[in-house]
User: Fold these one by one.
Assistant:
Number 1:
Amino acid sequence: MKGLPVLALLLCISSLYFVGLYLFVGGFLLVRLEVNRTSSCGDVLQPAGEPVDFCHVQPRLRRAVVLIIDALKFDFARYDHSNAAPRPYENKLPVLEEVTSSRPSHSRLYPFRADPPTTTMQRIKGFTTGSLPTFVDVGNNFASSAILEDNLIHQLGQTGKRVVFMGDDTWESLFPKKFHRSLPFPSFNVKDLHTVDDGILQHLYPTMTGDDWDVLVAHFLGVDHCGHRFGPDHPAMADKLTQMNAVIRSVMERLQNDTLLVVMGDHGMTDTGDHGGESLKETDAALFLYSPAPLFPGPPSQDEPEVVPQTDLVPTLALLLGVPVPYSSVGQVLLPLFPPHGQTEGAVEGLSQLEALWINAKQVNRFLETYSSMASDIPPENLSQLRREFSRLSDQYLSWVRGGGPPPPRLLFSLQSYLSSVRDTCRATWARFNPFKMAAGLVVLAFACLTCYVLSELSVVLIQENARRLRTPVVVALVVGVSVAVAQWFARGYADVSWCLAASALTSELLFFWTAARSASWLSHPLLVPPLVVSLLRCASLLSDSYVIAEGRVVTFLLFSLALYVPVHLNWCGHLVPPTPDPLKAAGLLPSPTLSSSAVRKETTTLVGGVGLLVLSLYLSLSFHACREEQGSCRPSPFLSPLSRLQDSQLKNLHYVLSVVSLALWTYLLKRCLSHYGNLNSSGGAAFTARWILPLLSVFLGIYWAVSSTPEDNFKDLGELIRLGQLTLPRAVFCLLGLGLFLIWLDPLTVFIKLRSSPSSRTSSLPPPRYRASTSMSPQAELHHLIPQIYQRMRRSLEDGEVGEGGGADGRPAVEAYGLGTVYSAPLLLFCGLLGVGLLLLHPEGMALSFLLLLLEMGAMLYIHASSTTLRGHHSGGFTVSWPPIVMWSLASSQFFHATGHLPTFPSIQWGAAFVGFPEGHSGTILPASLVALNTFASHALFAVGCPLLLFWPLACEVRGSRGGGGGGGGRACGDEDEDAVMEMRLRENPDQFSSALLQLSTRYLFLLGAQVFASVSAAAVLRRHLMVWKVFAPKLMFEACSFLVSSVFLLVGVTLVLRVDVAVAQWFKKVIPEASR
Amino acid sequence: MWDHEIKAMASTHAIIAASVFMATVLPAAFVESFSVYGTHLVWIYAVSFVVTVVSVAVFWLLGVTPPTKKHTLGYKLSRLFRCCLYFFLSCLFFHTVVVLYGAPLIESALETFSLAVLLTSLTTLRCLCVLGPNVQAWIRVFSWHGAMSVWDTCLQITVSCTLIGAWFGAFPIPLDWDRPWQVWPISCSLGAVIGFLTGLVVAPTWIHYHRKQLTYKCK
């Protein structure tokens, strides 16, 4: 067969999609320009007029201790006396309450609201630079690079303050070489609750009592990791918070009079302990301020802020410590910390409220001016309004300073509202798009979808002419791309890669259409058949946020409808019920049925059974869904949390047994299927993998689950062993998996030949004389002619003696070849099975059930497809796979994305997958990222690899129908039997049809996936100012794009495997034919 | 060609549609604060009951129902019993299908079952009236060449319209519009009834315009 054209075409079409996605994403995801200027001591001025060196004024507080307790939710910090039975996370920080009530002018507790995304690195950036994050930053959590913008740490260092840092090592990568002294501890291992905290505690108190510091930053990670690992509602959280309480208390005891203590959380957490989104539970952390010297002018008054935005900490700390406010901060000073003008009673001194606000407003105004001169994304009307407002305020303020007297009454308030409106303007405009790139991406994607569809319709023609038609577009595209790059180079001095790609993709698509439109009528088929309508509905559903939120159920609903459609449609066409004996038929007026009635009945039973299994697994799979925060009353599946989180040991055992049983069933079903078709008899690599590696993998996985769910505390003596097991078992699984996949690749044939013969019978196994007569043909033609004949001989004696004896009566049973009928599908199935076990390793244990359902559903769909093909009697013409099974296949991949506990939102990414086999964390970023990607898109990968099975399964199943017919008919002609029993060898007989069918199947699958991507891209483009765009559509777009990427890569892997098998089969035949005809 | 049947069908359908209308309007006189949304289950059962009674009466009067082979009382009784059984089984069947489609399993089971009853009385009952309690005939009717009379074609159209209506009725449920008719199962039952009424209109019209092409095999 022609393998290369198929692969080349698939590569081309996927790269077209990739270019479109790249363009769109480049224009859609928001970018904020970083202003690389820094504030200095001279430029933030006291209002008086002549420049004063800001930094040399005696600051109000000389030193500060900043304790950052990661994920310190506001609920954790609140103390409720009336709560008699607190949850593990409630009332565990009594020290905060004690101090705020007993020393109200020394301390305050505020809710501290973070800006989404609530991931740790983004938050550290936020509360050191005082700027607002943009969407793009989300992905940087793995490889956090140094902060280049002006920030608090930089300012502190510049003014000669010695900053000592200890804790989360993210800081070290964000602020390399900025600290006077730093003690970073590894942060990435979520399962490790104590390393970071114990490390800090070891050094915190000695450092505090020493005099080698001015600002001490300690970032505790235990609470956050505890939330990730156990969730907030777990005794471990109570322990952790109690520990933090003790830490705060002893730090307070060691504070000196000129020192400020800040205890804060960088973000909150959801009820499951995750964060990253923008729900109030995630954004609301706690902020606690304390100083042994009076900090506040009085007890809490009416105008206390209800919630403190996280950016406001930056200017406040800067002014309290006497350093310039970082250049790009858009925060607002916390007024209660500053005394009102003229009120100098008590020990509170330094800047008054008005002065602080004025400095703040001036700094913000300066940033605004600089930013608007660099970038034009802030709307000019907003900008001019802000400018007018500032000049009015500055006039008012300066005249008051010059004139003296009581301050204008409204000035304080107007300064505050000016600062808030600047922040709101910035927040609104840092959602900035590049409409040209977006439009180009959309156009390229739309044309890519069309191209894909046309390719799938033209596959036969394309394969026949060896894909020559595609050469021109590709060459022209390359030329255009390069020339655009050169033109850009000459015109502007640099080349923008995206525009070159856009130009070449568009020209290639348009050229392809032009050639396609000239030659063939490719819109012959009606487009509005129900399966495509279902797929259209699926795409349309991506345009509504409600449907995206309920996507798991929507996909299940559509898949269920399609599953019911198949038998109903077959019945409508009259294929489902055996035809009643009809006088018309006997008279020859109607075509006689191709299948006997008993065969029809058998196929119908299979079909109905398949539909039943499909429906059942669809329904059961609904119970594995996770919940989005928008789904109010939803409860996440109990199988989603890892076993180590379960408290009840009986429940734990039950879950474990269930998981192991489903894993065993997965393995058993695969082996059963392979041995049913006789693929396990050979001694090749693939059969070895199926016989030994697959069971071994499952055993290892089962042991690993047991080890990882054992609480380390219960078995102190075994702790070492458990740790060893957690390290080695998954790695062993990875190695075995690699070995198995490699063996399948190396030796994919699962055919076992048995020469059942003494030498004499071997001589008698000579082919009948007519082959000898054909020696005059060219060897190539002879080969083509011989293969089916030889195959049929082998086939006659396949598996059981029954048919073999039939052959024996014919005279000469020659060769038995076990498993030749499923030579293509067996390695693919095995590949899927192995990959499935590997992917299951990355999931929580309970997902084994869901994976079993996935396998069952795959099988059900394959059998439905096979029997409906048989019932329709489509064997005679081509191997075309019709739309319904492909649509079902693509829907099922999205359905199991949800049914394996995933959601298209960032907080729901199962980061734990990165630590399977690497409990100590990683040094690089590629490995953990790919592990997480494999975990997230497991179902897409599995279904994409298994996609070619749709082509093989009807062929692998056809033998049953003919046999049943033979049995029912009580002795049909031997010739029929022979013709029917060719199974997948049909594909070898018609290599061109095989290639075109494979191409058609893959392009159809890619078309469906691409249409989904296009729909979600259009949703993001059309609804880019929608309320839900950052919460629903943008994450959905990212997930859809990634899933497309994973799917297309794995589809290519599957197709390549098929081609590899084909090469191996060709070699095998070359080897066998001389042997058999010897 | 089929003028007589088409006329009969049109008038039958008019009667049934009118009865659905009455079932929506009349209960207000008996039930306090009756409304389609507020007391939805009452409406469902009213419509189901009225459609059942009217269809049975009309089809019996018209004599569309295939004549029984035997005329003994026992046979008729057993036939009646089988009809009731099939009606009940069909309710269970629809209930199962609706639950599999994603309806809640335990909570609001009564609502789901009411929807199943409505669907049964709009679809299965008609099958029972036209074809009798004979599942094989039902399966046969829903195929390309399976219709053996104008009434069979009409059955095909109304049943598929009803089911498609109920299917489309499920679409608005996930939307966040907070409308009263988005509550389960109101949109589905409304969809089913609207589909049914559409089917009642479409069936005679379609048959009228295609009466030249319609040919039926004799039994």
Note: Chain A has three domains: 3-26+435-518, 31-431, 530-580+594-751+822-960+981-1075.
Number 2:
Amino acid sequence: MHEWALAEAVVSFVSDRADRPRRIRVLLGELQNVDEEIFLSALKEMMDDVEIDLTREECVLRCNACKKDMKLKDLGEEERELVHFLPEAVHAYVSCPLCGSRDFTIEKGRGVVIESVEGS
Amino acid sequence: MAERNDPRESIIDRRLDGIKKLAVVSAKGGVGKSTVSAILALLLAEKAKVGVLDLDAYNPSIPTILGMRELRVGEDRGITPQSFRGMQVLSFAHFSGDRAMPLRGRELSDAVKELLAVTTWDADLLIIDTPPGTGEVTLDLLRFFRDARFLVVTTPSALAKMALDRELELLGRSRVIGVLENMSERDCDLCVRYSKEIEMACGDTDRLMSLADGMRNMAEEIWRRL
Ligand SMILES: Nc1ncnc2c1ncn2[C@@H]1O[C@H](COP(=O)(O)OP(=O)(O)O)[C@@H](O)[C@H]1O
Ligand SMILES: [Mg+2]
Ligand SMILES: [Zn+2]
């Protein structure tokens, strides 16, 4: 349900940029694992006449030691929830499957990103 | 090309609107920032609704000092901090537990932003414990909150004095509500004496509270300056 807070941030961002927004495009990073339904209904409740495009973005973690990319592996249920609240918490629970390093960067698919706001 | 934009920054100041913010800082580690933050929070919680935000990602200490055994956060149209002894407490330890959370600069800033953007506080005063130094956390607090006040903690050592000068040079006098001399050998409004008892009280809320009793004047003074 903290999706509501994320949706509020989007609404605040959009209203800073357009008085009459028509359409927004939002990327949802795999890492944060936002519940699309709750997020969308929160957005709809706050901006009912705006068209909302949601796209999922796959998470890519890049190891700073061996420079290889890694996909997000299965996290335990509890860890998944902590990462849902705070994506950077992934640094507490994941290491590079190739070299074992804990030093990696979230390259893509972290959280909520606004791709575009259309309107005036 | 699509512009990629971060919606969080636009809501951070609104989330903490109307809440006084006191960041406890120092360029040097180990001077007692976390201990002072915890004691101040316990004392001020008697007169106001106090939130404590522990932004030390590499070594979050607030839950340990306060003696919080089980860490859990709630969720209700945002992340709700944990209630403890009449305060609201949120720490990086709520997410990383006992594990290390190694992350580099930009991602540290990202983590700080996330907590500021999605946490819903019910507080009059937010006490913010910070990691040592003038890095991401201090810079983000300066950037997001024009109304944040800073309490700079130092000790009588020459090295701490040097760190203090650096910290003050960055923050500027108008942001700093006071310099607290911890582990002190003298008495003043913002002095806390060196005492083995303080160290021993770590993790024992009742003991901490009874020691804090002797620091009421200090807490009053800080409250007055906020
Ligand atoms: N006034 C004091 N007298 C004695 N020991 C203290 C005092 N204040 C803090 N300490 C101890 O000093 C150590 C460092 O304190 P801490 O609060 O972790 O500092 P920081 O957050 O600045 O790194 C801890 O072991 C703490 O118990
Ligand atoms: Mg500390
Ligand atoms: Zn690697």
Note: The interface with chain B takes residues 1-2, 4-6, 8-10, 12-14, 16, 25, 27, 64, 82, 85-89, 91-93, 102-103, 105-106, 110-116 of chain A (CB under 8 Å).
Number 3:
Amino acid sequence: MRSRGEISSFLHELPAAAKLLVLAGAGTGLVLVGSLPVLAGAFLATLLLYWLAGISRRQAFQQLRPLLWLLVLLFIVQGVWQSWELGALVVLRISTLILLAAFVTLTTRTDALIAAVESALTPFRRFGVNPAKVGLAFSLALRFIPVIAQQANDIRDAQRARGLGANPVALALPLIVRTLRMASDVADAIDARSPYSDHSGDEGELPPRFVLQPNTSNARMSCNDAEPQLKT
Amino acid sequence: MMTTIEIRAVHQRFETFEALKGIDLTLNEKRIGIVGSNGSGKSTFARLLNGLLIPTSGQVLVDGLDTAKSGKAVRRKVGFVFQNPDNQIVFPIVEEDVAFGLKGLKLPAAQRGALVEEVLDRYGLGPFRSHPSHTLSGGQKQLLALAGVLITRPDCVVFDEPTTLLDLRNARRVAKVIAEMEETVIVVTHDLPLLQSFDRVIVFDQGRVIADDEPNSALARYVERMQ
Ligand SMILES: Nc1ncnc2c1ncn2[C@@H]1O[C@H](COP(=O)(O)OP(=O)(O)O)[C@@H](O)[C@H]1O
Ligand SMILES: [Mg+2]
């Protein structure tokens, strides 16, 4: 699989904040617009973006694949109960939204995205919003969407193997249970893995074990840690 | 630096169920193995060692620091690698994930980069630094999880069944990495051959320590008990 870093385009270089703003604007627009030709145009324009950024067709399709069955189901439900035109509208709208969101994550470093979210939220600090925490939540969402999509696939495969059809409720329940169990592990892991962060975004003094030794190469740091008992 | 972990009269209850029934141990060997059947309390015990869990009664002291009072300071000394790496990789891209452990440190960007590069290279993950973490193999994910812990420079690393979810080849690879680590390691595992070279093996059964010895005698006792 190709990854970020191996490909680069002017779209990769755009500031993260600009891309997020455009994404938010386009997302709102897509929800408000109800015209099939306009949505089809937006879908094609999104594909054009992928092409301009040098992202392979295969990788573009990979973004939609986890939700393909859901899109088909939506199309059929809307088509049978409402109209096929509405079905096409809904599917185009959701596909374009997913592709656009994936486009931003594929062409932007996560730390740049988080920094953009954090600075956008800084004015809300006075209302009790902690931008560093929201930034972390944001990166967690990006990280775990593919994991949860994979689990949905696993559960569906297991149900199919037992002769069960595609029932959204039968899928949702085990998926929610698994995701909650995972969430509690992830919370522990965050605690265990970031012993120097209080998630406030503020930085403390550098502890001795990270201080550069003067007579060694820059990659080799001291492992001695003579720090006194730390208050937490 | 060698770490000493003292576990004093520890009981752990979950509502009415008592998962640990009075544990007294002093851990200061370089390599310690923990074995026991499923549900015997191994994970509960492991999670006590870096303050992820605080004992219902009794005390856990890491180099004299009480886990109930000095959680952060304890976690700087004792890192933890979970059974399922998918749940402890928290960033979408490999190098971003490793750098998470440095969050909150006042480090110049160049030094931060050098530290990330060093641990990635140590485990052959260098070529994957800009890959999405969910595209790594199971073994690579477990090594990434370990890299993300070692970048915080702990003195001791606790592993909870690090090879249970891996295929044989990846399990061998991760076991080799653990056996060769410079840091003090405490490993919960069902991989008995891995423990042959260890200094001490502790056997848990139904929330109690039933053997605590050098590997051969402790494992013999474990195998005998399981029959
Ligand atoms: N958070 C919890 N709530 C309730 N019961 C728990 C919890 N964690 C563990 N247990 C119970 O404690 C016992 C020991 O669990 P654990 O330490 O995970 O065992 P092991 O790792 O040896 O398989 C099990 O019976 C388990 O169901
Ligand atoms: Mg366990």
Note: Chain B touches chain A through 54 residues (CB under 8 Å).
